[in-house]
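Task 17 of the worksheet. Students: predict the tertiary structure of the chain below and write it out as structure tokens. Keep your answer in the requested format; marks are given for formatting as well as content.
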Amino acid sequence: MTTRQPIVSVLGHVDHGKTSLLDRVRGSAVVQREAGLITQHIGATEVPIEHIYKVCRPLIGNKRFNVPGLLFIDTPGHQSFTSLRARGGALADLAVLVIDINEGLKPQTIESIQILKRFKTPFIIAMNKIDLIDGWETKENAPFVLNYRDQTDEAKANLDDRMYKIIGDLYERGYSADRYDRIEDFTKAIAIVPMSARNGEGLPDLLLV
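Model answer:
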């Protein structure tokens, strides 16, 4: 039996970068065409496995996976689209919860977590907008784990401070989370992938996880 594409729902608070993330994946500019730059419908983006191999090669080399790719669903983040967002969370195999590293958990973020919990949908966190961290030297489309090594101690500390604030807020809501490359058992902790949807840093890490 042929393995189908896993369906990946993208959720999160308004303006935290959901559509911008998908734009990076599909190389389009849908966000610029949206009224008020807010997504008002559920769209789908197919990501073939060959594209994932190409983007993730610096991290995986020639490793291969037994899925034909991923099908991303872009779910609206504005509070007036609760029913659409709930429907998106219900039909997904996996989910990406987008959180602005500088703003942390917001009302629609918490609502999205509740939807994912209700439907028992496994999810990872795209901790977006790391390019806005003080002192951070971003590289377009670079894997986060490789670019992290080149940052100053101050920039690393600034990122870690914001990340652990988010980790603490998640812990208070009953979730264990950590940066993805520090996790040994992905069934017991939510993986956090620091990234920048604007310039693609961390996208290879996100697609791999």
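Marker's comment: Confidence is low (pLDDT under 50) at residues 28-41. The longest helix spans residues 153-172.
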